[in-house]
């Protein structure tokens, strides 16, 4: 069962839990516009060859621009046996609206 978390709750979870890893699956060009500091970056297209590098003992909050690509990645990770992946609903756009209004939007 795929889980989702909204931007505000994700920010609170990140502040209060060191066992949270943000996984940004956007492309390099998108990262050049805006990013969440400290997030791990593995573009969606390279997840199949790099997913073994991801921690299974921490909560993975997966994000993209609006939440669709990251949802696909969460589904893929679940199929690979990950039980710790959660989609950031609304993606980095929601983060820029509800958590960090200073962040550039696109």
Number of structural units classed as domains: 1
Helix content: 25-40%
> Which CATH class is shown?
Alpha Beta
Shape: globular
Task: Calculate Rg over CA atoms.
Answer: 13 Å
Structural class: alpha/beta
Classified in CATH, the superfamily is Rhodanese-like domain
Number of beta-strand segments: 5
Distance linking N and C termini? 30 Å
For the sheet with most strands, the description reads: 5 strands, parallel
> For the largest beta sheet, what order do the strands appear in spatially?
1-5-4-2-3
Order of helices and strands: EHEHEHEHEH
* Low-confidence regions: none
As a percent range, the share of strand residues is: 15-25%
CATH topology: Oxidized Rhodanese, domain 1
Arithmetic mean of pLDDT: 96
Number of helices: 5
Task: Provide tags for this entry.
alpha/beta; 106 residues; 5 strands; single chain; 5-stranded parallel β-sheet; Oxidized Rhodanese, domain 1; globular
Note the topology:
Layout: E1 3-5, H1 7-16, E2 20-24, H2 28-33, E3 40-41, H3 47-50, E4 59-63, H4 68-79, E5 85-88, H5 91-98
Parallel strand pairs: 1-5, 2-3, 2-4, 4-5
Short description:
By secondary structure, the protein is an alpha/beta fold. Helix content is 38%, strand content 18%.
Structural description of this entry:
This protein is of the alpha/beta class and 106 residues long. It has one domain (3-98): Oxidized Rhodanese, domain 1, CATH 3.40.250.10. It is built from 5 helices and 5 strands, in the order βαβαβαβαβα. Helices cover 38% and strands 18% of the residues. It is globular, with a radius of gyration of 13 Å.
């Amino acid at each position: 069962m795929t889980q989702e978390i909204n931007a505000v709750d994700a920010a609170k979870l990140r502040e209060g839990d060191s066992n949270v890893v943000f996984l940004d699956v956007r492309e390099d060009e998108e990262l050049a516009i805006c990013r969440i500091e400290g997030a791990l970056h593995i573009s969606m297209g390279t997840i199949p060859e790099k997913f073994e590098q991801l921690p299974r003992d921490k909560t993975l909050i997966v994000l993209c621009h609006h939440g669709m690509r990251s949802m696909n990645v969460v589904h893929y990770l679940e199929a690979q046996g990950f039980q710790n992946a959660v989609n950031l609903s609304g993606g980095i756009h929601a983060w820029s609206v509800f958590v960090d209004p200073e962040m550039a939007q696109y």
